[in-house]
Amino acid sequence: MYSVFLVDDEPIVLEGIRTKVDWESSGFAFAGEATDGEIALSMIHEIKPDILITDIKMPFMDGLQLAASIKKIQPWIKIIILSGHDEFDYAKKAISIGIDDYILKPFTSEEIVMALKKAAEHIDAERKQLSDISRMKEELKSKEKLVQKDFLNNLVHGSADMNSIMEKSQELGIDLLSRYYKIIISKVCSKTGNMQNQQEACSLLNSYSTVWEQTLCYFHHTNWLVTICKGSNQTELEENVFRIAETIEHIVTQNKDCSVVTSIGKTVEHLSSISESYEDAKKVIENSSLANQNRIISTEDMQITNSEMLELKENAPMVERLKYAGKNDVSAIIDESMDLIKSNPGQFQFFASYLLADLIFAVSKLVESLGGNVKEIKPEILQRSFIDTAVQDEEHFKNELESVLNFVVEFRDSKMTGKYGDVILKAKKYIDENYADQNTTLTTVAEEVCLSPNHFSTIFSQECKITFIEYLTNVRIENAKRLIKKTDMKGYDIAYECGFSDPHYFSYIFKKNTGLTPREYKGSSDSE
Predict the structure, then answer these.
(1) Beta-strand (E) ranges in 85-210?
(2) How far apart are CA 67 and CA 56, in angstroms?
(3) Strand 2-7 versus strand 28-34 pairing type
(4) At 157, phi and psi to the nearest 5?
(5) What is the pLDDT of residues 75-134, one digit of tens each?
(6) CATH 3.30.70.270-classified regions of the chain
(7) What is the CATH number of domain 2-130?
């Protein structure tokens, strides 16, 4: 199923395409729409559709400007331009900058479906070609690529002096000069250990990464993509970095067997400091407990400083492990503890007491490093009686071990990834108060919480397990349902009251979310 996004400043055109195309039977999914390119751009960056159909002439940002912006980050999106007869030369120019197809107005739904199927064929062919492992291996073995990789690898590891770096960069035609730098490391893994799938995902990533502006990319090891990001100011750099990180995740997870952890190092101001950003990002990537997860982690978002991380790693291995432990790791720690106990028969209480005490010590240390105090938050685990009761038998021990582990994981998440809890609450409050405003978008809410749109988008989706657009739509639909049940307002009035600019689009989204049209929902609620 290929997702399709529509952009046109004429609502009647949007409605015609949306309602006349039989999306599912044609093998496509309607992903969303917008009435101008500027609004569409932020939505497309979040939704990441496969195909975009856009009018060529629109206010604020026209179809060509929109296409050019999208192709810089999401090159896989196939773009179909809608144009009038008098815009034919304009459309031909559009094709020269990367547009995949164009349709002359007026058009039929059959022409739209034909263009979509043609685009889908191109997507399949491109993915097959770009996922070709042998193609990637040959490319990476080329002399030019090997020299560039060696140069960039020395740069991020701080293995060369600045004079030789500048000389070599000029020789290779690489522009390194910028005001600010950040390193991104993305580790690609197969959840099932299937190396074919992992290599295909890396090959696709390798191909698409070549178009990203203000970046230099290379593969370190077989599955680490290292991206050097440049920016003239910190806001621009942060915006680009989070957009690229989300794009990397989208590309890799096209293969359902693959996952990717992306770590974003700190911002540095000098080429000579790039190695610091690299080492910053590397600490997260090297942690094995993050395997098989899709995560984007900015080390600047974490409350633990580098010095604290190093100190904890040296003195308390369990603390380091707990810093990134997930549900699978909780089970693994319990299993490992039980295996150790079983390997020493007849000494259950001795080993169980030792292991639980060691864990409680590690938990206390980690909680303290995150600004908490176990004596205040969970004082019972510090009592000797807690351990004595827990080691009565294996069942009690396993239950208490799991309880302590779950406690520290939840507390850590509330502080490390959940440090944005206040941001999310503020964003949701703003949405609740402004959902009726058609201008409430990812950008306006991000401004309200003082984050860049892409940083906010990443945080929101990871914290809430739902995209910003999905959440906003759900809020609007829930309020529409309330108005349908509680008032006698007309459907089009409810649409405008809930932030939808087009009553027909509101009806479509309402049915998509509830399975009923607003009229049908009104009838069902009346009969309750």
Answers:
(1) 101-104, 180-190
(2) 10
(3) parallel
(4) -95, 0
(5) 899 999 888 766 666 666 666 667 888 888 888 999 999 999 999 999 999 888 888 888
(6) 135-302
(7) 3.40.50.2300
User: Highest mean pLDDT range out of 128-142, 230-244, 281-295?
Assistant: 230-244
Residue from 465, 128, 58 nearest 66 by CA: 58
- Taking a C-beta distance cutoff of 8 angstroms, is the pair 174, 217 a contact? no
**For residues 489 and 400, what is the distance between their CA atoms, to the nearest angstrom?**
56
Compute φ and ψ for 256, nearest 5 degrees: -60, -20
Is the domain defined by 135-302 classed in CATH 3.30.70.270?
yes
What pLDDT shows up at residue 101?
86
Q: State how far the alpha carbon of 459 is from the alpha carbons of 68, 237, 516, in Å.
A: 26, 17, 32
Q: pLDDT band for position 343 (50/70/90)? A: confident
215/339 Cα distance (integer angstroms): 47
Q: How far apart are CA 370 and CA 408, in angstroms?
A: 11
Domain boundaries for CATH 3.40.50.2300 within the chain: 2-130
Mean pLDDT of 303-324: 48
**Which residues, 6+ apart, have CB-to-CB distance to 150 below 8 Å?**
none
Structure tokens at 162: 């600045």
pLDDT tens track for 282-310? 988 876 556 677 889 888 776 433 333 32
> Which tokens go with 66?
């929109």
Residues 6+ apart with CB under 8 A from 222: 198, 199, 202
Q: Which residue carries 């208490």 as its tokens?
A: 400
Contacts of residue 301, Cβ cutoff 8 Å, sequence gap at least 6: 416, 417, 419, 420
User: Cβ(28)–Cβ(21) under 8 Å?
Assistant: yes
Angle between helices 421-434 and 453-464 (to 10 degrees): 100
Report the candidate in 316, 411, 315, 310 with the shortest Cα–Cα distance to residue 367: 411
Packing angle, helices 503-514 and 468-486, rounded to 10: 100
> The tokens 């390194």 sit on which residue?
176
Whole-number Å distance between alpha carbons of 213 and 239: 12
Which residues are CB-neighbours of 315 under 8 A, at least 6 positions away? none
Q: Which residue has the tokens 């998440």?
A: 413
Tokens 């600019």 — which residue?
A: 501
Question: May I ask the CATH architecture of the domain 419-526?
Answer: Orthogonal Bundle (1.10)
Question: Which amino acid, 238?
Answer: E
Cα dihedral 297, 442, 53, 102 sign = negative
Segment 354-381 shows an average pLDDT of 87
Q: Which residues in the chain are classed under CATH 1.10.10.60?
A: 419-526
Secondary structure E strands in 380-498: none
Which among 478, 468, 481 has a CA at the least distance from the CA of 440?
468
> Phi and psi dihedrals of 490, rounded to 5?
-70, 155
Are 54 and 10 in contact by the 8 Å Cβ rule? The answer is no
% of residues, the chain, pLDDT over 70 = 89
Task: State pTM to two decimals.
Answer: 0.69
215 bridge partner residues: 229
The token pair at 274 is 């790039």
